[in-house]
Amino acid sequence: MTSLTGDAALDRLIPAAARLTCGLREFNPDEVTAALDDAAHAHPGTDGHRALAVLLAAMIPWEHSPADLLAWVHRRPEYDRLLQAGVDPATAATLIDELCRPHRLT
What we know:
It is built from seven helices and no strands. The protein is an all-alpha fold. It folds into two domains: 1-59, no CATH class; 62-106, no CATH class. The longest helix has 14 residues, at 29-42.
């Protein structure tokens, strides 16, 4: 299997990162806790939580601000409606981001 990060130790954290992301987006504290436990076990003898934070930070696109990335949290009903309509989560978050941005007249 090809490495996604270039570092085998970080690659072992990818499933925990995915689980954490899903747990957060579903507002599921049990999944969040399980993901953090997964990270600790994936990095025995080291700080798995710190490595998980680095991996997640590396996954954030440069062109998005924290406000852009978290817009879906503040517009949860709209986000949920988009998901129920069959829109994938990434596209739904982008659409919510666009709704929250002030429109510029050029």
